[in-house]
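Revision sheet: structure tokens.
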Amino acid sequence: MLSRKQKHFFLKFFSLFSVVRGYNILIIIIAQYLTSVYILAHHLPIRRILFDLNLLMIVLASSAAIAAGYIINSFYDREKDLINRPHKTMLDKLVSQRTKLSAYFILNFLSVVFASYVSFRAVLFFSIYIFAIWYYSHKLKKYPFIGNIVAAVLAVVPFFAVFIYYRNFDLVIFVHATFLFLIISMRELIKDLENLKGDFVQNYRTIPVVYGERTSKRMLTVLAILTLIPIYFLLTRFNIGYMYFYFYGSILALIVFLVFLWFSARKLHYILLHTILRLVIVIGVFSIVLIDVDLLLNRIM
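Predicted:
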């Protein structure tokens, strides 16, 4: 049996884990490595990639900066989250605001330290990234369009850091990035619909607050249709191996998403739609291995 002190410690640990969304960061780490192995540095031996200290430092710098970003985002959104996610907010409140801010500065410092191992340019890159996350959380997320665009860009930046490191400028990478950007843009807009009540009360000028739910649904429909463009090129112009199964599945998921979207009217409906997009992203991460199933075995040997 755990003592009361031990239980309190574990509750605080899970509270901080919830604030920094450790599960999201784990997915991003896996995605960065799989992208490196199968797309960005597919010509290199897998051991060279997995044991590359520079890549490890870039991944750690990204993870620390993202974790810090979740903390500062939670700090600025605490009043709104009390309305939108009361149960999660009560768990997050087990860790004091002072502790969260201390963790925020420590994580940002660690991000710069990790980047300094790679180069001064990496330090500059992640310093700008850290500032951009803070400015988005503090100001930009309260405004329509620009807040959504910046949020989607910030979500793609960790992959851009690895892309710059390997200096691989193949067109297929930009097409993959466009697909990811559009899916993340849809997710950000669905999150605004999901958080409509709290955003309205706290005077966040998001797209659903300013232009209404119907306009937001029209925009989501346009984004879903635009997403078909990179899918088409990936299926017809590039060699993506068995990953075509994933993209055909994504088309089906987008159709289901759009049908359900136009019948949605409650927060629960938007949470389900958000879940569909999250599944598309997470399954997409692990589907990267389908680009070349034999590649992993051949490069390990």
